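Session log. Operator J.P. requested a structure for one protein chain; no other inputs attached. Running the standard single-chain path with token output.
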Amino acid sequence: MAGRDSIQCWGTGKATREFLFVEDAAEAIVRAAEVIDEPTPINLGGGREIAIGELVREIALACDFRGEIQWDASKPDGQPRRGIDISRARSLLKWAPQKDFTEGLAETVQWWRSSGTK
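Structure written below.
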């Protein structure tokens, strides 16, 4: 939106992360409150690890950014992986995320644009 020719991102883009759409998270939390009686750790996630480089490219595409993406490898990548096992959520809550990453990202960008946030 700022009309820049490039953006700079930290690290190499090789580290991975997992994301979960907020509505899927809310559904899982409500379901846990309804069916779990004892404190039980349950991981919630989108079920897909995504490399930060791919994440940046998908965000750029969703935001119609056509400029250059520059990586500053002198800056940290952070933890190499952050993917989780959601098998407990599937078995105990009978829950799985409904929105895939790309669909959730598109909704998030649409919300961000309509909210006037800059």
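Operator note: The domain at 6-110 is CATH 3.40.50.720 (Rossmann fold).
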